[in-house]
Amino acid sequence: MIRNVIGSILALVGATAAVWSPFRAWYDGRHGRDYRIADLFGGITQTRADLATSILLPFAFAALVTLVGLLLRSRVLVAVAGLVVLGFTILWMVRQGQVSDGLSVESDGSGLGQGVAMAAGGGLLLLLAAVVMSGRRRVERVPHDADGHGHGRRHGRHGRGAGEPEPYEEPYAEPYADPRAQPYGQRPYADDPPTAEYPPYDEGYDRPRDQRYGRPGPGQDPNERP
Fold this sequence. Notes:
Number of helices: 6
Strand order of the largest sheet: 1-2
Number of strands: 4
Low-confidence stretches: 152-158, 201-205
Order of helices and strands: HEEHHHHEEH
Largest sheet: 2 strands, antiparallel
Radius of gyration: 42 Å
Helix content: 25-40%
Structural class: mainly alpha
Shape: elongated
Number of domains: 2
């Protein structure tokens, strides 16, 4: 949480510096808003650009991407915004250096101005913000238990919230089986004598089902006892 707050502050400061930089002097007192985007790809000219077609446009786009990234807590979007700002700044420096036979900073205000420093610093702050931010926390929903009763709570990337104990699980127990519960006609133990409850194995157990339960079988006299 704290990392996201610090990263958001750095990102907002970097985006503000990038958007404000075209309104400052970039080279020999010429403001950044006077440079056309087309000049960055075809060469620097003395043609003055409109505000909508100036170098301000990519910086404004980077600021918009930064805001979306902060709302979504996306480190990737914030990093992309920083790369856009640094990319256009470096591209301008390359084109300006080709026209001026090199870049310099003079004490009388000529050469590189504050706008270039603000743009480069804003891009670096955006990249730093992407590193500082912890990003959006991935959440998982706890699956239902074997008996169908799920907790229905959301947990973090480790499966449960911080400080929560391990979920209690009932130990598996085999169903109780009475060792003396044997099929009819079998004694629980071989050495036990036959009783009325447990007759010998061969007494009535191997008979047909109809005869076993006292019902006459096929071809048997119904009055005859089995």
